[in-house]
Amino acid sequence: MVDHSIPKLFVLDTNVLLHDPTSLFQFQEHDVFLPMMTIEELDHNKKGMTEVARNARQVSRFLDEIITRAGKTDISLGISLARAQNPGPSGTLFLQTLKKTPPTALLAEEKPDNQILAVALELQRSQPQRPVILVSKDINMRIKARALGVDAEDYFNDKVLEDTDLLYTGVRELPEDFWETHGKGMQSWQEQGRTLYKVEGPLVPGFFLNEFVYQEQGEKPFYARVKERIGSSAVLEILRDYTSQRNNTWGIVAANREQNFALNLLMNPDLDFITLLGQAGTGKTLLTLAAGLMQTIEHKLYSEIIMTRVTVPVGEDIGFLPGTEEEKMTPWMGALEDNLDVLNKGDEEAGDWGRAATRDLIRSRIKIKSLNFMRGRTFLNKYLIIDEAQNLTPKQMKTLITRAGPGTKVICLGNIAQIDTPYLTEGSSGLTYVVDRFKGWVHSGHVTLQRGERSRLADYAAEVL
To answer: What's the pLDDT tens digit per position in 326-336?
Structure first.
């Protein structure tokens, strides 16, 4: 009979450690068991400069540190996971010290996954009073475990949110009675050509800094940004209307409400970090490039635009590509070229020569960089665009964002419904992570773009396919 009052024993699959090296320390008071095959697979994955290889080496360092700290104690009795600098985990680490034979003919013994499963089965047999749980990022491994009667779970500690429908959108619709409940003693004034309102009421404590609030009832819609918030009072700043041709950004005007919100973030020099989420065709890349060109070439706020993205192919990989770093990245940057075509067609009066000259000027200010060479770099006064950011892990996202030096603006674009990286989910993507962690910071902003503006065909396909 399983006794749920005693600590659980979690058997870790290799992919959990390769995904998050700190997973050893994430099980609080419960115990962790590492099969010998898990350590063997760590050894196979340690070579190279990939994220997986770095994680494998980090796990090995953690294990070395734990075993060294244990001294001459008998390893088979377990080693405490408590760490002086991090008193979080209080469980025990067990390493496989005896050969376990598979107790079922269903498993092919030579397969690493089956050897780990055999260990979990043996532990369940030898410790019937204790809950034994296999933790794996591999869905098929979990299915096999359950078929053999072993409890199996995904690794949940990396998930920022269980339900991505709860992810911060950066946009809030105000109720119809907002001004009745929040308008008493309201103050209004002008500052640098913008109108500001100071409001107070019960909804205000739920506002985030730089969140967009709107109300579309009545003759004139109300669109504002939360500029300040102290307790139950907030200062709302009326937005610049980028849907108007007189406020066009490099010839581009906002096609809907969320695009207008996005341009208000992108064109605000006080904001250093912007995240734009949205399905294909919502205009994320086009708006970001238009705002970048305007601020780099016309306003001279930034020295150049740097664009990078994760090189995860949707289909089969086409192998090594010849040329320089920029030439190797070019096939991945089709989205950049497509959007530059749109931005370059804006000036009808320039003629072919004028447009060719403009295109050369634009391309001279846009640099394409690979993520592989970002470590140790510092970007000064750059407009850094991270495209397809949903394919980054939280750790990779941290590595990239911490490259930003003084005067640099970082924009992360992505669609969390299109993740191509193995073992990453909507809840554990680096993009979800930064949206959640940066909400409410005074120098950051976020908008989830809702409506596609690519074509009626693309919109319909996104909806029905």
So the answer is: 666 566 556 67
Q: Which residues of the chain are under the pLDDT cut of 70? A: 1-2, 4, 83-88, 99-106, 158-165, 311-335, 345-355, 372-373
Q: pTM of the entire structure?
A: 0.77
pLDDT digits (tens, 9 = 90+) for 13-39: 998 998 888 888 888 888 999 999 999
The token pair at 88 is 């979080």
